[in-house]
Amino acid sequence: MQVTRRQFFRICAAGVGSSSLAALGFAPGEALAQVRAFKLARATETRNTCPYCSVGCGVLLYSLGDKSKNAHTEIIHIEGDPDHPVNRGTLCPKGAGLLDFVHSPNRLQTPEYRAPGGKEWTRISWDEALDRIAKLMKDDRDKNFVATNQDGATVNRWTTTGFLAASASSNETGYLTHKVVRSLGMLAFDNQARV
Amino acid sequence: MTNHWVDIKNTDLVLIMGGNAAEAHPCGFKWVTEAKAHRKARLIVVDPRFTRSAAVSDFYAPIRAGSDIAFLGGIINYLLSNDRIHHEYVKNYTDFSFLVNEAYTFEKGLFSGYNAEKRNYDKSTWGYQIGEDGFAKTDPTLQDPRCVYQLMKAHYSRYTPDMVSTICGTPKEAFLKVCEMIAETSASNKTMTIMYALGWTQHSQGSQMIRTGAMVQLLLGNIGVAGGGMNALRGHSNIQGLTDLGLLSNLLPGYMTLPGEKEQDYQAYIDKRAFKPLRPGQLSYWSNYGKFFVSTMKAWYGDAAAADNNWCYDWLPKLDKTYDILQVFENMNNGMMNGYVCQGFNPLASAPCKVKVSGALAKLKYLVTIDPLATETAEFWQNHGEYNDVDPAKIQTEVFRLPSTCFAEEDGSLVNSGRWLQWHWKGAEPPGDALSDQEIMAGIFLRIRELYKKDGGTFPDPILNLSWKHRRPDFPSPEELAKEFSGKALKDVTDPKDPTKVLVKAGEQINGFAELRDDGSTACGCWIFAGAWSEKGNLMARRDNADPFGIGQTLNWAFAWPANRRILYNRASCDPAGKPYDATRKLIAWDAGTGKWSGSDIPDFKPDSAPEEGMSPFIMNPEGVARFFAVDKMNDGPFPEHYEPFESPLVSNPMFPDNPVARACPAARVFKGDWESFGKPDKFPFVATTYRLTEHFHFWTKHVKSSAIIQPEQFVEIGEDLAKEKAIKSGDHVRVKSKRGFIVAVAVVTRRLMTLTVGGKKTYTVGIPIHWGFTGVAKNGYLTNTLTPFVGDANTQTPEFKAFLVDVEKV
Predict the structure, then answer these.
(1) What's the CA dihedral at B61, B64, B66, B71 to 10 degrees?
(2) B304 DSSP 8-state letter
(3) DSSP 8-state secondary structure symbol assigned to residue B334
(4) Helix H or strand E segment including B341
(5) Tens of pLDDT, residues B43-68
(6) Residue-level pLDDT at A27
């Protein structure tokens, strides 16, 4: 059977190891020495969008691990999504380097705490961090919440703690954040659209 | 964007001004290339730098940073005095014929109603003459000296080509060439798109710059058409979405506004915003405000929101002023704040005047940062040598640094500049113990709620009653949240014309905002996103890229707000009789046979309103038409007027050399003490402007190895003339200083920054890329907001990062 180099890759990509194919006699006319299965062929493909500017380019994330319970997924490659109507598979230099963002050595790993006057971070647990933050916020709100202004009008506002939301976070995060922040009576509230 | 990225391919002319798409939005800019290659479109770039957008333009005109209103006002003057406007469009679709209040004036650079002490305007004279029938008066002959057309013509007659050249430093011939190219698009079958970004936003009069651009487009009939529009190229991947969702001090979701403290009466609050039509037969879509508001309150407070408590209206905080980021740092600096939470926001780097921001943070009792990366803000207390010279022992702020997921580790939707809500999927688990933002928000909120349940406290009602119906309360899922903001029926929703017909059954997701009700029978967290997740499923996740009309509309790709509409104001692409102005770029048209508007887009109009009914295309305005005269919507004047940036090389405004009040924007807020922090041209003679590079994104990518390799070190750009004067060579280190501080960086001497003649004087520009700081894998550098002034736009309070004064010296 005559197999062109292109067809051969296609057969390989379909999931059969190249050596077993060769053993069955399906070998292309050219040398096989340089051929190995594409790493991406056994990766899981996930559709996503670039988190940088507002063009909203489609990207494909390729990760090792099949998302089964005990498999550790690791993103090994990111490229432009050729189906996407805006970027049609292309990416700019930032988007093309997204893998290094995901794996940046400066990604934070654990909650950390810096005490007043302290010179260093100390690692704390999520429960310690969130319990303490909730207490600080509640104490400040209880002390400084303004129910009525000097004219006796109902104002129900809390202006001594503020919140900045993230314009790279999802709509779902943004919606939830807005709901929580207003329920607390906060007004000192913005996102990067302000700057 | 009124239009969207792919639609740029339909244009005849691109004006890039106040932006630099080739470098800051590279994959979107490819549609400019497409239009050039396949439609013979031309590209004009007006910018202080010869950018990479300029490098591929057909015509480039230099301009002094901060003088854009003078340039655009000059274009308006050119179009009006040479009669190069789209007559039918402006006559029918704009306020040209509306008569303005007799008491409105503009004298010596000030509009009527100015209060010098408060630095604001009483806007009561900025309105229409209202007839006895309650409608605005008009003069269709356009002869009345008080009609908007006549007032506008008089207002911009001062913006002569010579005046433009004096203020902007643009050579007169270059300015006139731009005018001539733009004027060609006043023809019905020609159009222009304007692409702008933070180069227009970040000025003390940024909002008015954008308005002036929109006015040019309206005069030419370029709004609402394929290939046209006012296209804001937003800065972040979801800055559009967070704005739409109202995460700003004074907003609620879907561009609703929080009440002020004087608005104690619920019905008056609604009535003030539910505009009644100002002309006969107009739709005035905001008249539905009550439906949007009640539905949001039902989404937030569930059963607790009822008619008898005005849907919990009292629970909303009431504003005494806007607590924008500048006001907040002013308050913090004055010791009026105790806590601050920064979720994916790095204000030490991105708010103006670092010394003030840093000092303010040090006065907090507690600071919480939530971020995937190690930001400067989280370490504002740590000594990083020359880049952050502070003494930790003296800073008593308690600081928390919480690790969150990044885009690749979550499901959810983002809104791109073209208003497309695009869903994305999780590809891997986050590193270490990092949690999603939803889990962190839930973690904080549920703990606070528990404390209020257990211990009581001040006004716990809105906290205890916040609707929180999630399968996992500690992790509200993206799917649940998306369904909540998209909206559902709480009771059967029926057709108002036929109450026996049920449009949506109780419990079902709604199809769109037309189904919202103000009687508590619907819940919808963000009315403009309504229908994004309907009973048909998650429309944001759609991936059909088919383009059946060949003009790039792809209606089945993702979901565009509002109502999956791709081009806003598209009714204006047709003449008053409902026929497209340009059949080759048809968006919609009136079909007399079916009695409906239809085409390649979702009509931005009442779908069954026949042309002879006389409804006008701008249905969100009570007038039904677009406004040149902004009535009372802007803080600094109903017509945009040129004022100098707060720091300017000119000691007076060439328009009003004798009126110091009209030098810089008279209505911009300046805090006490900040006047002294502004530099003058005698000590700081050069115009500085900040910007981004293609290879970096704000302050994130200095943490990214590939970006750090291709742009490793901080630099500033200096023109050849200035370099010669100061004996600076490329590669030298220079100190750039403003009145607020200094940075040291490598000098790049370039012809891209030209010497301009402004007000008769040679003027140099210094270009300052923003991307470095004291954390990251790139070489450490200075935060450039060490240099920038603490003053913002009179309407939005967006800081003036694009035009300020510096001095430069070789180190």
Answers:
(1) -40
(2) G
(3) T
(4) strand B339-343
(5) 999 999 999 999 999 999 999 999 99
(6) 53
Chain A nearest-CA residue for B692: A53
A44 in the same domain as A26: no
Domain co-membership, A67 together with A18 = no
B562: preceding bond cis by omega (within 30 degrees)? yes
> Looking at A19-86, which runs of residues are DSSP E strands?
44-49, 58-64, 74-80
Tokens representing residue B43 in the block: 């590209």
B422 in Cβ contact with B540 (< 8 Å): yes
CB atoms within 10 A of CB B605: 23
Pair B781, B736: CB distance under 8 Å: no
Same domain, A149 and A170: yes
Extents of the domains making up chain B: 6-237, 238-326+400-415+420-560, 660-810
Quote the minimal CA–CA distance from B458 to chain A in Å: 5
CA distances B641 to B77, B93, B305, Å, are: 13, 23, 45
pLDDT of A166:
95
Q: Which of A54, A97, A114 sits opposite B381 (nearest CB)?
A: A114
Query: Given A51, A81, A102, which residue is the final one in a domain?
Result: A102
- Between chains, do B249 and A153 touch, taking CB under 8 Å as contact? no
Q: Is B547 on the interface with A (CB under 8 A)?
A: yes
In terms of residues, how long is chain A?
A: 195
Chain B 343-372, residues with CB within 8 Å of chain A CB atoms:
343-345, 347, 350-351, 365-366, 368, 370-372
Q: Which of B341, B407, B433 sits opposite A48 (nearest CB)?
A: B407
Instruction: Say whether B660-810 and B6-237 share the same fold.
Output: no
C-alpha–C-alpha distance, residues B341 and B353, integer Å? 20
Q: Is the same domain home to A31 and A18? A: yes
**In the prediction, which pLDDT does A26 show?**
53
ipTM, interface predicted TM-score of the complex: 0.98
The CA distance from A29 to the nearest CA of chain B, in Å, is 38
pLDDT band for position A10 (50/70/90)?
low
Nearest CA in chain A to B798: A195
Would you state the pLDDT for residue A28?
53
Domain match, A49 and A96 both: yes
- Positive or negative CA dihedral for A166, A171, A177, A182? positive
* CB-based contact B300 A183, cutoff 8 Å: yes
pLDDT for residue A31: 56
Distance CA B360, CA B784 (A): 18
Same domain (yes/no): A134, A94: no
Tell me which residue range forms the domain holding A94. 40-102
Stretch 205-234 of chain B: residues touching chain A, C-beta under 8 Å: 233-234
Which CATH number goes with the domain that contains A90? 3.30.200.210
For the segment(s) B6-237, the CATH number from 2.60.40.1120, 3.40.1190.20, 3.40.50.150, 3.40.228.10 is: 3.40.228.10
Quick one: A90 and A122 in the same domain? no
**Residues with pLDDT less than 70, chain B:** none
DSSP character at residue B573: G
Q: Which residue of A has its CA nearest to B467?
A: A179
C-alpha to C-alpha distance for A105 and A103, rounded to whole angstroms: 6
Q: pLDDT grade, residue A19 (50/70/90)?
A: very low
Tell me how many residue pairs between chain A and chain B have CB atoms under 8 A apart: 481
Q: Which residues contact B16 (CB under 8 A, 6 or more apart)?
A: B32, B43, B44, B45, B46, B47, B53, B57, B195, B196
Strands, E assignment, B364-496: 366-371, 398-403, 412-415, 420-424, 488-489, 493-495
Structural fold of domain B660-810: Barwin-like endoglucanases (2.40.40)
Angle formed at CA B291 by CA B287 and CA B295, multiple of 5 degrees: 155
Give the residue from A44, A85, A195, A180 showing the smallest Cα distance to B796.
Answer: A195
Give the gap in angstroms from C-alpha A45 to the nearest C-alpha of chain B: 8
When pLDDT is averaged across residues A42-70 and rounded to a whole number, the result is 92
